[in-house]
Amino acid sequence: MMEATPEKQQFEAGLAMLGRDDVNGALKAFEGAYRHDNEEPRYMSYYGLCIAARRGAIGMGINLCVAAIKKEFRRAEFYLNLGRIYKMTGNRKGATNAFRKGLRFDPKSEPLKKELADLRVGGSRMIPFIKKPNPLSRLLDLVFGKETGISIHKQRRRGFILTTAKGETHSKI
């Protein structure tokens, strides 16, 4: 049985701290791991996220996340970290694209789904294909409430699909 390397231990400690919302501690741990092995994509990605969040080094954070993606492009967590940096800078389009790319590689990723939902893509949660808020979407949000879990999706050649909070779908509405 192999022992964990110091940088692996630092990285694991950083993940635990990040899970407890201790971003300062996580930054120190990820920085230590990255300094030991600056070619490891996971160290790059998480160090990039934390350095952007705590030190405001947005460009460096984005560069590190993109470099990690270039090394292992099938890792959904790397897109999550990149999307979070874009989100914290107000780049909704970049964040949305990153989260959607991540979902291509891990369609069941709850953190990616949650981040994408938090961006409220579209003008209304009920009708996501309406790009800008308009009177209809505002009215539907007022009548049904924003948190009902009901949404309407436009699909080619099938009309519209209604999805309820329980995940039931009803076509041809």
What would your notes on this structure say?
- This protein is mostly helical.
- It folds into 2 domains: 1-119, Serine Threonine Protein Phosphatase 5, Tetratricopeptide repeat (Alpha Horseshoe), CATH 1.25.40.10; 121-173, no CATH class.
- It has 8 helices and 3 strands.
- The protein has helices at 6-19, 23-36, 41-55, 58-71, 76-88, 92-105, 110-118, 135-144, and strands at residues 151-155, 159-163, 169-171.
- The chain has a 3-stranded antiparallel beta sheet with strand order 1-2-3, with no helix packed on it.
- A hairpin with a 5-residue loop joins strand 2 and strand 3 (169-171).
- Helix 4 (58-71) packs antiparallel against helix 5.
- The chain is elongated and about 60 Å long.
- What is the annotated CATH architecture of the largest domain? Alpha Horseshoe
Task: Quickly name the level 1 CATH class of the largest domain.
Answer: Mainly Alpha
Shape: elongated
Strand order of the largest sheet: 1-2-3
Q: Secondary-structure element order, as H and E?
A: HHHHHHHHEEE
Strand and helix layout:
Blueprint: H1 6-19, H2 23-36, H3 41-55, H4 58-71, H5 76-88, H6 92-105, H7 110-118, H8 135-144, E1 151-155, E2 159-163, E3 169-171
Antiparallel strand pairs: 1-2, 2-3
Helix pairs in contact: 1-2, 2-3, 3-4, 3-5, 4-5, 5-6, 6-7
